[in-house]
Amino acid sequence: MSNGTGPAIDPRFQGEREEEPVNLRELVFRYLAYWKWFVVSVIACVFCGYVYLRYSPVKYSIKASILVKDEKKGIGQDAMLKELDIFGSNKVVENEMEILRSFTLMSKVVHDLNLNIRYYSKKKVKDSEIYNNCPVLVELVGDSGDGFIEPIHLHIVGGKTVELDGKPVELNKEIKLPEGIIKINLTGKDVTAEDIVVRIQSEESMTEALLLELKVEPSSKMSTVLMMSIEDNMSQRGVEVLDYLIKAYNEASLEDKNKVASNTLVFIEERLRLLSGDLNKVEQSVEEFKSKEGITNISEEGRLFLQSVQENDMQISQAKIQLSVLNSVAEYVKKKDNQPGTVPATLGISDPTLLSLIAQLSQTELQRERTLKLTREDNPLVLALDDQIRMLKKSILENIETLRKNINLTLEQLGNQNAKLESFIRSIPGKERILVDITRQQAIKNNLYIFLLEKREETALSFASAVSDSRTIDSARSTSLPVKPVRKVVYLLSFVLGLALPFGAIYISDLFNDKVRSREDIARATHAPVIGEISFAKDAEGIIVDPKSRTAVVEQIRALRTNLAFSGAGSKVQSILFTSGMSGEGKSFISLNLGAGLAMTGKKTVILELDMRRPKIHRSLNLSAEKGLSNYLIGAAHAEEIIQQVPGHENFYMIPCGPVPPNPVEILLNGKIEELIEELRRKFDYIIIDTPPIGIVTDAQILAKSADVTIYVLRHNYTPKSNLLMLEELYRGQKFHNLHLVFNAIKEGSRYGYKYGYGYGYGGYGVDEKQKS
After folding, report:
1. Cα dihedral angle (187, 193, 199, 205), rounded to 10 degrees?
2. What letter does residue 12 receive in the DSSP assignment?
3. Helices 552-564 and 587-600 meet at what angle, rounded to 10?
4. What span, in angstroms and rounded, lies between the C-alpha atoms of 272 and 267?
5. What confidence score (pLDDT) does residue 38 get?
6. What DSSP element (H or E) covers 461?
7. Longest dimension (CA), the chain
8. What is the pLDDT of residue 299?
9. What gap in Å lies between CA 287 and CA 267, rounded to an integer?
10. Is the pLDDT of residue 662 over 90?
11. What's the Cα-to-Cα distance from 472 to each of 101, 242, 250, 258, rounded to whole Å?
């Protein structure tokens, strides 16, 4: 027996334990122990994925592509088209992308196709949307659909009558609802559908929703091909949206190009109307004069004079037209203040500088108008265009003033020449002179009329030959299969989620768990050796060890009995002290059954019930506790009087605690317990001392010097990990002689069960004889 304090602390305890690397095999088996959880979770998540795919709306991808003629990137018009398209303009791909994504164009698509009204066939689980095959058609009367929040429920009776809220309604007649006025009519399509749900949204909200789905991007950095795509749960509707959007874009483009040509045609038509009346009057005057005076021809001299006068008057007329056009352009430039409009016609002006400036002004104003559709007036881009417009107008006015001076000078010279010609008129006989004047007016009007007719034909030809600056490469087409949701991805995510949920739950459980759940937890916290591991035994009370038992728990207790023989560090083990950190860890159960196991080997064994605060061993054995240790310690009984044999177990004896004393610590310190243990050593082969938990009272430390081996019991998933720190301090300070650990109540089937069922269950071991029979 060794009662000394023992040697100094082992040097291997001086430093902290090095952190052990992660054991991958242990980690895998830790989670494999919960394989049933993983299977159930995966099945549940995959089923949820199936339900999601079954009832979630699918979406198809619809794509189209157009070519924008951008001369900056090498795509322009042919030479012949340029000659015909005298009012054309250049395009920038980036601007056209923004125009295609503009709210104005998309709102036109929504309005013209009535996309803000959607129809659904009523089903038990989920309503099915109908497009272009609905038996009813709902039309909004003077309303954009802003007030319709709740859907309209319609019931079709016999394919001929429509009921709204259970009441028949008149077809193609205005129906006043609190939200607005609608008309309902039958289309004759899908006569099998009876219950129809109509959902009406505002055009503005539907436009915004479609713009969120619309994507416009160039096919490559240097390309002018724009790829357009949209996703919709109705493929036919998506195709119609893209096709109509391209159509509306081309129409808007042509409308912008033809503004100048249209204005020029209006100007020419007005001039032709006035000139035609004047020409008719002049021709009628010539006819009446010749008839009245009987003149059929004039002299050769008069003819030559008339020809000279006509040419001179033609030049004067053209100069006056040019001056009128210049005045019109100057008035437009002065009065206009960066507001959208159309530059007046430049008919008869041949100055290339002025024509170029006017063309630049028209193009810049058009670009400003397009930019304002996408941004506000205080945008730097708009302000820069405003500055450019002001500079162009200033240059135009300066150029007009110069041309005015030149034209006035020309008119002055032509007027002087007319004065000379008028002096010759006086030399012509009176009748011939009058005829020459009338014919002169006729020639002037006729030449102007022909000139205007030529310009009208040129403008009309340009107007008729105007083509869009874009060309459709691929019309809208839809994918044959839905692109959303992706079935493979949904099932894959469901499978991964099925694995992740139990994994996360187990990980979080481990993260917040403060109980000892594995031998590795013990090894990481303390150097104290584990001498035995006991599996969990349901409803196990009292003594379960007997010669015929082959259960796992009994075999593990026998293994503990064997290991005790090698735990004395060279000295014989006779007294064994059992303690634990807290109540309920099973020290009394193990001490009782270990005593029974030692007695089965023919060794006289006695167990001392020294947990005098909560004694329970004598109750499990149905023994009397009228006299016991408390009586002996106070001198009220002898050792022979308190020793009782355990019923049914040869060589196994017990000393109960006796009446519970009010001061257990004090009576343990009176020296009587050492005398009792010395006396028991002479009579018994093994002495088992069952003490209270060390984490609560100090009884075990008082009795420690009387023990050859101390067994500290830990319970699986019950003992707090914080108790291991106290245990390590006890072990390092060697406050208990030969301190060893027993890991108790390890549950089979837990994540650590695979390590503690070893050896039992093979060759008949670990199976009760009753179970075998």
Report:
1. -70
2. G
3. 70
4. 9
5. 93
6. helix 430-465
7. 180
8. 53
9. 30
10. no
11. 17, 11, 10, 20
Q: Which two tokens stand for residue 354?
A: 């002025």
Task: Mean pLDDT check: name the lowest of 351-360, 529-538, 745-754, 758-767.
Answer: 758-767
pTM, whole model, 2 decimals? 0.56
466: pLDDT confidence band, cut at 50, 70 and 90? low
Q: What is the pLDDT of residue 71?
A: 53
Q: Are strands 652-655 and 215-218 parallel, antiparallel or unpaired?
A: unpaired
- Bridge partner list, 579: 712
Q: Which residues are CB-neighbours of 540 under 8 A, at least 6 positions away? A: 553, 589
Under DSSP, the state recorded for 685 is S
Query: Both tokens of residue 689?
Result: 């001392």
Distance of alpha carbon 95 from alpha carbon 361, whole angstroms: 18
Provide CB contacts within 8 A for 635, sequence distance 6+.
Answer: 672
Q: What is the pLDDT of residue 297?
A: 55
Q: How far apart are the first and last CA of the chain?
A: 46
pLDDT at residue 429 in the model: 55
Query: How far is residue 234's CA from residue 58's CA, in Å, rounded to a whole number?
Result: 8
Contact yes or no for 596/589 (Cβ under 8 A): no
Phi, psi (rounded to 5 degrees) for 623: -105, 155
Structural contact between residues 687 and 681, judged by C-beta atoms closer than 8 angstroms: yes
pLDDT at 490 over 90: yes
Can you give the length of the chain in residues? 773
CB 676 within 8 A of CB 632: yes
